[in-house]
Design a protein that fits this description.
The protein is of the alpha/beta class and 457 residues long. It contains 14 helices and eight strands. The chain has a five-stranded mixed β-sheet with strand order 5-4-3-6-7. The termini are far apart.
Length: 457
Protein backbone atom coordinates (compact mmCIF):
# COMPACT_ATOMS: atom_id res chain seq x y z
CA UNK A 1 0.00 0.00 0.00
CA UNK A 2 1.51 3.28 -1.07
CA UNK A 3 1.39 6.45 0.98
CA UNK A 4 -1.65 7.83 -0.85
CA UNK A 5 -3.66 4.70 -0.27
CA UNK A 6 -2.68 4.65 3.39
CA UNK A 7 -3.85 8.23 3.85
CA UNK A 8 -7.12 7.46 2.07
CA UNK A 9 -7.67 4.41 4.30
CA UNK A 10 -7.07 6.41 7.48
CA UNK A 11 -9.39 9.20 6.27
CA UNK A 12 -12.09 6.62 5.60
CA UNK A 13 -11.61 5.22 9.12
CA UNK A 14 -11.80 8.73 10.56
CA UNK A 15 -14.95 9.49 8.59
CA UNK A 16 -16.54 6.27 9.85
CA UNK A 17 -15.56 7.13 13.44
CA UNK A 18 -17.00 10.63 13.07
CA UNK A 19 -20.20 9.22 11.65
CA UNK A 20 -20.45 6.79 14.58
CA UNK A 21 -19.78 9.65 16.99
CA UNK A 22 -22.49 11.79 15.37
CA UNK A 23 -24.92 8.88 15.65
CA UNK A 24 -24.09 8.42 19.35
CA UNK A 25 -24.50 12.15 19.98
CA UNK A 26 -27.85 12.13 18.18
CA UNK A 27 -29.02 9.14 20.21
CA UNK A 28 -27.91 10.81 23.45
CA UNK A 29 -29.71 14.01 22.53
CA UNK A 30 -32.91 12.07 21.82
CA UNK A 31 -32.56 10.20 25.12
CA UNK A 32 -31.85 13.47 26.92
CA UNK A 33 -34.97 15.07 25.42
CA UNK A 34 -37.06 12.06 26.43
CA UNK A 35 -35.66 12.07 29.97
CA UNK A 36 -36.28 15.82 30.27
CA UNK A 37 -39.89 15.38 29.13
CA UNK A 38 -40.37 12.50 31.59
CA UNK A 39 -38.82 14.59 34.35
CA UNK A 40 -41.20 17.47 33.68
CA UNK A 41 -44.18 15.10 33.77
CA UNK A 42 -43.01 13.59 37.06
CA UNK A 43 -42.41 17.03 38.57
CA UNK A 44 -45.90 18.11 37.54
CA UNK A 45 -47.38 14.96 39.08
CA UNK A 46 -45.37 15.41 42.29
CA UNK A 47 -46.47 19.04 42.50
CA UNK A 48 -50.07 17.85 42.95
CA UNK A 49 -49.09 16.42 46.34
CA UNK A 50 -45.89 18.17 47.40
CA UNK A 51 -46.39 21.93 47.23
CA UNK A 52 -46.70 24.95 49.50
CA UNK A 53 -50.49 24.65 49.61
CA UNK A 54 -50.46 21.05 50.89
CA UNK A 55 -49.64 20.50 54.57
CA UNK A 56 -47.09 17.77 55.37
CA UNK A 57 -49.79 15.73 57.12
CA UNK A 58 -51.58 15.23 53.80
CA UNK A 59 -48.57 13.47 52.28
CA UNK A 60 -47.39 10.91 54.79
CA UNK A 61 -45.91 8.80 51.96
CA UNK A 62 -43.45 11.64 51.25
CA UNK A 63 -42.20 11.87 54.83
CA UNK A 64 -38.89 10.27 55.82
CA UNK A 65 -39.04 6.92 57.62
CA UNK A 66 -39.05 7.55 61.36
CA UNK A 67 -39.39 3.96 62.50
CA UNK A 68 -37.15 3.20 65.42
CA UNK A 69 -36.58 6.85 66.23
CA UNK A 70 -37.49 8.15 69.65
CA UNK A 71 -39.43 11.35 70.09
CA UNK A 72 -37.90 14.23 71.95
CA UNK A 73 -38.16 13.85 75.69
CA UNK A 74 -37.85 10.07 75.96
CA UNK A 75 -39.41 6.89 74.72
CA UNK A 76 -42.63 6.90 72.77
CA UNK A 77 -45.84 5.95 74.49
CA UNK A 78 -48.94 7.26 76.24
CA UNK A 79 -48.57 10.55 78.14
CA UNK A 80 -48.33 10.57 81.92
CA UNK A 81 -51.75 10.13 83.51
CA UNK A 82 -53.30 8.47 80.47
CA UNK A 83 -56.08 6.10 81.56
CA UNK A 84 -55.21 3.52 78.93
CA UNK A 85 -57.48 1.57 76.62
CA UNK A 86 -59.09 -0.61 79.31
CA UNK A 87 -62.25 0.99 80.63
CA UNK A 88 -64.06 0.09 83.82
CA UNK A 89 -67.02 -2.12 82.92
CA UNK A 90 -70.10 -2.36 85.12
CA UNK A 91 -72.30 -5.37 84.23
CA UNK A 92 -75.99 -4.67 83.72
CA UNK A 93 -77.08 -8.30 83.59
CA UNK A 94 -75.93 -11.79 84.61
CA UNK A 95 -75.41 -14.60 82.12
CA UNK A 96 -74.79 -18.13 83.49
CA UNK A 97 -73.41 -20.70 81.07
CA UNK A 98 -73.94 -24.08 82.79
CA UNK A 99 -75.24 -27.58 82.07
CA UNK A 100 -75.89 -30.87 83.88
CA UNK A 101 -75.46 -33.07 80.79
CA UNK A 102 -72.33 -34.38 79.07
CA UNK A 103 -72.32 -33.53 75.33
CA UNK A 104 -70.48 -36.81 74.60
CA UNK A 105 -72.39 -39.58 76.47
CA UNK A 106 -75.35 -37.45 77.59
CA UNK A 107 -74.80 -38.59 81.18
CA UNK A 108 -75.70 -36.39 84.15
CA UNK A 109 -72.80 -37.30 86.43
CA UNK A 110 -70.89 -34.01 85.84
CA UNK A 111 -69.18 -31.51 88.12
CA UNK A 112 -67.49 -28.12 87.90
CA UNK A 113 -63.71 -28.13 87.42
CA UNK A 114 -63.44 -24.38 87.05
CA UNK A 115 -65.72 -21.34 86.96
CA UNK A 116 -64.55 -18.70 84.48
CA UNK A 117 -65.68 -15.19 85.32
CA UNK A 118 -65.61 -13.04 82.21
CA UNK A 119 -67.05 -9.56 81.68
CA UNK A 120 -67.87 -8.64 78.09
CA UNK A 121 -69.48 -5.79 76.21
CA UNK A 122 -71.86 -6.87 73.47
CA UNK A 123 -74.49 -5.50 71.16
CA UNK A 124 -77.75 -7.24 70.19
CA UNK A 125 -77.77 -9.45 67.14
CA UNK A 126 -78.85 -7.59 63.98
CA UNK A 127 -82.61 -7.73 63.63
CA UNK A 128 -84.77 -6.82 60.64
CA UNK A 129 -86.47 -3.44 60.85
CA UNK A 130 -89.96 -3.06 62.25
CA UNK A 131 -92.75 -1.99 59.95
CA UNK A 132 -95.22 0.05 61.99
CA UNK A 133 -98.67 1.31 61.10
CA UNK A 134 -98.70 4.77 62.69
CA UNK A 135 -101.86 6.72 63.42
CA UNK A 136 -100.97 10.39 63.93
CA UNK A 137 -103.72 12.70 65.13
CA UNK A 138 -103.50 16.29 63.99
CA UNK A 139 -105.23 18.39 66.65
CA UNK A 140 -106.88 21.79 66.80
CA UNK A 141 -107.36 23.75 69.98
CA UNK A 142 -110.97 24.98 70.17
CA UNK A 143 -109.94 27.74 72.59
CA UNK A 144 -107.09 29.46 70.69
CA UNK A 145 -107.38 27.88 67.23
CA UNK A 146 -103.87 26.34 67.28
CA UNK A 147 -103.41 23.37 64.92
CA UNK A 148 -100.65 20.99 65.97
CA UNK A 149 -99.17 17.50 65.93
CA UNK A 150 -98.84 15.85 69.38
CA UNK A 151 -95.39 16.78 70.80
CA UNK A 152 -94.47 13.14 71.47
CA UNK A 153 -94.56 12.25 67.75
CA UNK A 154 -91.32 10.81 66.33
CA UNK A 155 -92.71 9.62 62.99
CA UNK A 156 -91.79 11.65 59.85
CA UNK A 157 -94.87 13.05 58.17
CA UNK A 158 -93.43 12.28 54.71
CA UNK A 159 -91.89 9.08 53.39
CA UNK A 160 -91.68 5.58 54.82
CA UNK A 161 -88.23 5.77 56.45
CA UNK A 162 -88.19 6.23 60.22
CA UNK A 163 -85.99 8.56 62.24
CA UNK A 164 -83.71 5.85 63.63
CA UNK A 165 -83.03 4.41 60.17
CA UNK A 166 -82.33 7.88 58.77
CA UNK A 167 -79.98 8.54 61.67
CA UNK A 168 -78.15 5.27 61.06
CA UNK A 169 -77.64 6.09 57.36
CA UNK A 170 -76.31 9.55 58.21
CA UNK A 171 -73.82 8.16 60.72
CA UNK A 172 -72.53 5.69 58.12
CA UNK A 173 -72.27 8.47 55.55
CA UNK A 174 -70.56 11.15 57.63
CA UNK A 175 -68.68 9.21 60.30
CA UNK A 176 -67.58 6.19 58.25
CA UNK A 177 -67.50 8.02 54.89
CA UNK A 178 -69.75 5.33 53.44
CA UNK A 179 -70.66 5.57 49.78
CA UNK A 180 -74.25 4.95 48.65
CA UNK A 181 -73.75 1.47 47.21
CA UNK A 182 -71.82 0.10 50.21
CA UNK A 183 -74.30 1.67 52.65
CA UNK A 184 -77.15 -0.15 50.90
CA UNK A 185 -75.15 -3.41 50.97
CA UNK A 186 -74.43 -3.03 54.68
CA UNK A 187 -78.10 -2.45 55.52
CA UNK A 188 -79.06 -5.60 53.63
CA UNK A 189 -76.29 -7.74 55.14
CA UNK A 190 -76.68 -6.52 58.70
CA UNK A 191 -80.39 -5.86 59.01
CA UNK A 192 -82.04 -7.74 56.13
CA UNK A 193 -83.20 -4.34 54.86
CA UNK A 194 -83.23 -4.31 51.08
CA UNK A 195 -82.79 -0.76 49.84
CA UNK A 196 -81.20 0.61 46.70
CA UNK A 197 -78.45 3.24 46.53
CA UNK A 198 -81.13 5.60 45.21
CA UNK A 199 -83.09 5.08 48.44
CA UNK A 200 -80.01 5.87 50.51
CA UNK A 201 -79.54 9.02 48.46
CA UNK A 202 -83.19 9.95 49.03
CA UNK A 203 -82.69 9.58 52.80
CA UNK A 204 -79.70 11.94 52.68
CA UNK A 205 -81.70 14.39 50.56
CA UNK A 206 -84.59 14.42 53.03
CA UNK A 207 -82.21 14.93 55.95
CA UNK A 208 -80.51 17.77 54.09
CA UNK A 209 -83.84 19.49 53.50
CA UNK A 210 -84.64 19.06 57.18
CA UNK A 211 -81.33 20.75 58.06
CA UNK A 212 -82.14 23.95 56.17
CA UNK A 213 -82.95 26.10 59.23
CA UNK A 214 -79.90 24.91 61.18
CA UNK A 215 -77.61 25.49 58.19
CA UNK A 216 -78.87 29.03 57.63
CA UNK A 217 -78.46 29.75 61.35
CA UNK A 218 -74.89 28.47 61.08
CA UNK A 219 -74.25 30.88 58.21
CA UNK A 220 -75.51 33.79 60.29
CA UNK A 221 -73.26 32.84 63.24
CA UNK A 222 -70.20 32.73 60.98
CA UNK A 223 -71.08 36.11 59.44
CA UNK A 224 -71.06 37.84 62.85
CA UNK A 225 -68.02 35.98 64.26
CA UNK A 226 -65.11 38.18 65.26
CA UNK A 227 -62.52 35.70 63.95
CA UNK A 228 -62.69 33.23 61.09
CA UNK A 229 -60.27 30.81 59.43
CA UNK A 230 -60.91 30.45 55.69
CA UNK A 231 -59.56 28.01 53.12
CA UNK A 232 -60.68 26.38 49.90
CA UNK A 233 -59.99 23.22 47.91
CA UNK A 234 -61.15 21.91 44.56
CA UNK A 235 -63.89 19.29 44.16
CA UNK A 236 -65.34 18.01 40.89
CA UNK A 237 -69.11 18.30 40.40
CA UNK A 238 -70.37 16.55 37.26
CA UNK A 239 -66.87 16.83 35.79
CA UNK A 240 -66.71 20.58 36.39
CA UNK A 241 -64.14 22.00 38.81
CA UNK A 242 -65.96 23.44 41.84
CA UNK A 243 -64.49 24.74 45.10
CA UNK A 244 -65.22 23.72 48.67
CA UNK A 245 -64.82 26.72 50.98
CA UNK A 246 -64.44 26.31 54.73
CA UNK A 247 -65.21 29.07 57.24
CA UNK A 248 -64.16 27.99 60.72
CA UNK A 249 -64.82 29.96 63.90
CA UNK A 250 -64.25 29.07 67.52
CA UNK A 251 -67.45 27.00 67.67
CA UNK A 252 -68.59 26.39 64.09
CA UNK A 253 -67.44 24.97 60.77
CA UNK A 254 -69.27 26.08 57.64
CA UNK A 255 -68.74 24.40 54.26
CA UNK A 256 -70.03 25.89 51.01
CA UNK A 257 -69.48 24.40 47.55
CA UNK A 258 -69.43 26.89 44.69
CA UNK A 259 -68.27 26.90 41.05
CA UNK A 260 -65.90 29.80 41.77
CA UNK A 261 -62.81 30.52 43.81
CA UNK A 262 -63.42 34.26 43.52
CA UNK A 263 -64.52 36.89 46.02
CA UNK A 264 -68.22 36.31 45.30
CA UNK A 265 -68.16 33.55 47.91
CA UNK A 266 -66.59 35.88 50.48
CA UNK A 267 -69.25 38.49 49.70
CA UNK A 268 -71.99 35.87 50.13
CA UNK A 269 -70.77 34.44 53.45
CA UNK A 270 -68.94 37.29 55.21
CA UNK A 271 -69.91 40.40 53.29
CA UNK A 272 -67.55 43.11 52.06
CA UNK A 273 -68.03 45.10 55.28
CA UNK A 274 -66.72 42.26 57.46
CA UNK A 275 -64.34 43.81 59.99
CA UNK A 276 -63.16 40.83 62.04
CA UNK A 277 -59.91 38.88 61.85
CA UNK A 278 -59.49 36.59 58.83
CA UNK A 279 -56.86 33.85 58.71
CA UNK A 280 -56.09 32.80 55.12
CA UNK A 281 -53.40 32.05 52.57
CA UNK A 282 -52.20 34.52 49.93
CA UNK A 283 -54.94 33.88 47.39
CA UNK A 284 -55.80 37.27 45.91
CA UNK A 285 -59.57 36.85 46.42
CA UNK A 286 -59.12 37.69 50.12
CA UNK A 287 -58.04 41.23 49.18
CA UNK A 288 -61.78 41.81 48.74
CA UNK A 289 -62.14 41.97 52.55
CA UNK A 290 -60.70 45.47 52.77
CA UNK A 291 -62.18 46.19 56.22
CA UNK A 292 -60.93 42.98 57.83
CA UNK A 293 -57.69 42.44 59.73
CA UNK A 294 -56.09 39.72 57.63
CA UNK A 295 -53.44 37.30 58.86
CA UNK A 296 -51.64 35.49 56.05
CA UNK A 297 -50.53 31.93 56.76
CA UNK A 298 -46.90 31.51 57.77
CA UNK A 299 -47.16 27.75 57.27
CA UNK A 300 -47.78 28.32 53.55
CA UNK A 301 -44.89 30.79 53.40
CA UNK A 302 -42.42 28.46 55.13
CA UNK A 303 -43.44 25.51 52.94
CA UNK A 304 -42.84 27.69 49.88
CA UNK A 305 -39.42 28.91 51.09
CA UNK A 306 -38.42 25.37 52.07
CA UNK A 307 -38.64 24.39 48.40
CA UNK A 308 -35.71 26.72 47.58
CA UNK A 309 -32.70 24.54 46.78
CA UNK A 310 -29.85 27.03 46.42
CA UNK A 311 -27.50 28.08 49.22
CA UNK A 312 -29.05 31.54 49.38
CA UNK A 313 -32.52 30.01 49.34
CA UNK A 314 -31.74 27.74 52.28
CA UNK A 315 -30.33 30.69 54.22
CA UNK A 316 -33.44 32.73 53.39
CA UNK A 317 -35.71 29.93 54.64
CA UNK A 318 -33.70 29.70 57.87
CA UNK A 319 -34.06 33.45 58.45
CA UNK A 320 -37.83 33.28 57.87
CA UNK A 321 -38.06 30.38 60.30
CA UNK A 322 -36.23 32.44 62.94
CA UNK A 323 -38.72 35.30 62.43
CA UNK A 324 -41.61 32.88 62.83
CA UNK A 325 -40.12 31.47 66.04
CA UNK A 326 -39.63 35.01 67.34
CA UNK A 327 -43.30 35.79 66.69
CA UNK A 328 -44.55 32.67 68.48
CA UNK A 329 -42.22 33.26 71.45
CA UNK A 330 -43.35 36.88 71.70
CA UNK A 331 -47.05 35.97 71.68
CA UNK A 332 -46.53 33.55 74.55
CA UNK A 333 -45.41 36.41 76.82
CA UNK A 334 -48.94 37.98 76.91
CA UNK A 335 -47.69 41.43 75.84
CA UNK A 336 -49.58 44.67 76.32
CA UNK A 337 -51.08 46.72 73.49
CA UNK A 338 -48.11 49.11 73.57
CA UNK A 339 -45.62 46.24 73.47
CA UNK A 340 -47.46 44.72 70.56
CA UNK A 341 -47.32 47.94 68.57
CA UNK A 342 -43.59 48.33 69.23
CA UNK A 343 -42.93 44.73 68.26
CA UNK A 344 -45.05 45.12 65.12
CA UNK A 345 -42.89 48.03 63.94
CA UNK A 346 -39.71 46.13 64.83
CA UNK A 347 -40.76 42.94 63.04
CA UNK A 348 -41.93 44.88 60.00
CA UNK A 349 -38.48 46.47 59.67
CA UNK A 350 -36.79 43.06 60.03
CA UNK A 351 -39.01 41.47 57.40
CA UNK A 352 -38.46 44.37 54.99
CA UNK A 353 -34.68 44.22 55.42
CA UNK A 354 -34.72 40.49 54.85
CA UNK A 355 -36.64 40.62 51.58
CA UNK A 356 -34.59 43.58 50.36
CA UNK A 357 -31.32 41.77 51.02
CA UNK A 358 -32.36 38.60 49.17
CA UNK A 359 -34.38 40.25 46.39
CA UNK A 360 -31.41 40.16 43.96
CA UNK A 361 -31.38 36.36 43.96
CA UNK A 362 -33.38 35.10 41.01
CA UNK A 363 -34.41 31.82 42.68
CA UNK A 364 -35.86 33.64 45.70
CA UNK A 365 -37.73 36.36 43.77
CA UNK A 366 -41.06 34.44 43.54
CA UNK A 367 -41.11 34.03 47.33
CA UNK A 368 -40.13 37.68 47.78
CA UNK A 369 -43.06 38.66 45.57
CA UNK A 370 -45.30 36.35 47.60
CA UNK A 371 -44.31 38.27 50.75
CA UNK A 372 -44.40 41.78 49.29
CA UNK A 373 -47.92 41.38 47.92
CA UNK A 374 -49.26 41.44 51.50
CA UNK A 375 -46.38 42.80 53.54
CA UNK A 376 -48.29 44.14 56.59
CA UNK A 377 -50.66 41.16 56.73
CA UNK A 378 -47.93 38.74 57.80
CA UNK A 379 -47.68 40.47 61.17
CA UNK A 380 -51.31 40.94 62.21
CA UNK A 381 -50.63 38.22 64.79
CA UNK A 382 -48.09 40.55 66.41
CA UNK A 383 -50.26 43.65 66.32
CA UNK A 384 -53.44 42.00 67.65
CA UNK A 385 -53.87 39.58 70.60
CA UNK A 386 -54.97 35.93 70.24
CA UNK A 387 -54.26 35.82 66.50
CA UNK A 388 -52.46 32.71 65.27
CA UNK A 389 -49.75 33.15 62.62
CA UNK A 390 -50.98 30.16 60.60
CA UNK A 391 -54.19 28.99 59.01
CA UNK A 392 -53.75 25.44 60.27
CA UNK A 393 -57.22 25.26 61.87
CA UNK A 394 -58.89 25.78 58.49
CA UNK A 395 -56.62 23.18 56.88
CA UNK A 396 -57.47 20.71 59.63
CA UNK A 397 -61.17 21.41 59.22
CA UNK A 398 -61.16 20.85 55.47
CA UNK A 399 -59.15 17.63 55.70
CA UNK A 400 -62.30 15.52 56.12
CA UNK A 401 -63.65 16.84 52.81
CA UNK A 402 -60.32 16.03 51.14
CA UNK A 403 -60.66 12.44 52.37
CA UNK A 404 -64.22 12.27 51.00
CA UNK A 405 -62.94 13.57 47.65
CA UNK A 406 -60.35 10.79 47.52
CA UNK A 407 -63.07 8.20 48.18
CA UNK A 408 -65.88 9.32 45.88
CA UNK A 409 -63.86 11.23 43.28
CA UNK A 410 -66.64 13.67 42.42
CA UNK A 411 -70.23 14.64 43.16
CA UNK A 412 -72.58 13.22 40.56
CA UNK A 413 -75.04 16.10 40.82
CA UNK A 414 -75.25 19.66 42.09
CA UNK A 415 -77.93 18.54 44.53
CA UNK A 416 -75.46 16.02 45.96
CA UNK A 417 -72.95 18.78 46.67
CA UNK A 418 -75.65 20.87 48.38
CA UNK A 419 -76.72 17.98 50.58
CA UNK A 420 -73.09 17.33 51.54
CA UNK A 421 -72.28 20.95 52.44
CA UNK A 422 -75.31 21.23 54.73
CA UNK A 423 -74.99 17.99 56.63
CA UNK A 424 -71.18 17.96 56.76
CA UNK A 425 -71.22 21.52 58.18
CA UNK A 426 -73.61 20.59 60.98
CA UNK A 427 -71.79 17.34 61.80
CA UNK A 428 -68.40 19.10 61.92
CA UNK A 429 -69.78 21.96 64.05
CA UNK A 430 -71.41 19.64 66.60
CA UNK A 431 -68.19 17.64 66.85
CA UNK A 432 -66.17 20.85 67.31
CA UNK A 433 -68.52 21.88 70.12
CA UNK A 434 -68.14 18.49 71.82
CA UNK A 435 -71.85 17.69 71.51
CA UNK A 436 -73.40 14.23 71.21
CA UNK A 437 -73.64 13.83 67.43
CA UNK A 438 -76.33 11.15 67.53
CA UNK A 439 -78.46 13.17 69.94
CA UNK A 440 -78.17 16.37 67.89
CA UNK A 441 -78.96 14.68 64.58
CA UNK A 442 -81.95 12.88 66.04
CA UNK A 443 -83.35 16.06 67.61
CA UNK A 444 -82.89 17.96 64.33
CA UNK A 445 -84.67 15.27 62.29
CA UNK A 446 -87.60 15.00 64.73
CA UNK A 447 -87.94 18.76 65.02
CA UNK A 448 -88.10 19.36 61.26
CA UNK A 449 -89.68 16.19 59.89
CA UNK A 450 -92.25 15.11 62.47
CA UNK A 451 -94.27 18.31 62.90
CA UNK A 452 -96.13 20.65 60.60
CA UNK A 453 -95.88 24.36 61.17
CA UNK A 454 -98.37 25.36 63.85
CA UNK A 455 -100.91 27.97 62.94
CA UNK A 456 -103.58 29.99 64.69
CA UNK A 457 -106.88 30.65 62.93
Amino acid sequence: MNEVDEISFKMAQLAAALAERDKIILDLREEHSKLRADNELLRAELAKYHNSNSPPSSNKHLKPNTQGKQSRGGKRGAPVGHEGTTREQKPTEKNVVDTDECPNCHGHNVKDTEVINKITEEIPEPVPPKVTDNEIHKKECLDCGLKFIPPKNTVPLKGTIGINLMLFVLLIRFLLRGVLRKTASFLEAGFALKVTPATVNAIIKRASEAADKEYEALKRRVRVATRVFVDETSFSVLGVNYWVWIFRTKTDILLVIRPTRGNKVLAEILGQAYSGVVHCDCWRAYDFLSNASIQRCWAHLLRKSKELLGVAGRHFHAKLKLLFDEITDFNQTNPTTEQRQEKFVEMKVKLKKLVTYYSKNEEIRPVIKYINNHCDQWLTCVRLPDVEPTNNLAEQGIRETVMVRKIIGAFRSEDGSKHYERLASLVASWQLQGLDLQKELRAMLIRNLCFTQTEVT
